[in-house]
Fold:
Amino acid sequence: MHTRWLLLIVLFFSTVNIPLINASERIEIVSDSWINFVHADGSGYYLDLLKLTFPSPEYELNLTILPYARALHTIKAGKADIVLGIWANEYPPYLLSKYPVEADILDALIRKSQPEITNITSINRLRVIAKVGYGIDELLDSPISYDEYTSLETMIKMIQHERADVLFDYFEEMNAMVNFHDLKSQLIIKRGVLTQYAYFGFCSSARCSVLKQHFDEGFLQLYNYGTVKELLLKNKQSLRALPPLTPLTTDKKKPQ
Structure:
């Protein structure tokens, strides 16, 4: 596997004719942490993608873990170069990666005593909660209420004690917390209730425009070689998370 990735990197730099930034260029990355996607130790699917498109020693990747909303604020303020795993409605489209990097599948935590969630309309007239910055309300029809919180543990307790009805987050994080508090007899996780496409976002400088072009070209080659699929499987994801190779389209244009 490592030999194949090395060959892909060599092929990428020998065939892609785009401007390169200086050797050992430091790239500042911000992201929330997600199991199997972003870890502080540099592992995870999103970071694997970056390491292949911006390999060492030509590039130095510096990761800062921040809460989701703070990561978005940091990239918007121009204090980072790349933000990982955001949706198209959260950032100017012309600053997003050309292709989605993942089909972002959100799961729902509910009480076992509740009626089962079968589709989006079954969430109507329920009290919905999610992590700060997720903006799940834009995907829903008519919930009774929608609120966002920073603490996953707090939100799980809200579901347990009937102060909310549905929590949207990711299975791995919620399942770990449910097991830690021994709540499997009370709570259940419904898999794959909502799906959005996730992108990498780039800052608005000319330098970041070069980074974006570099990543877009690299991701396309990795996808066509089947490496994106391999990285998802390596990081314990199902192929449901494999995004379509569909360029992001929008009517909004880059300011002149």
Helices lie at 2-15, 45-53, 68-76, 152-160, 171-180, 206-224, 227-234.
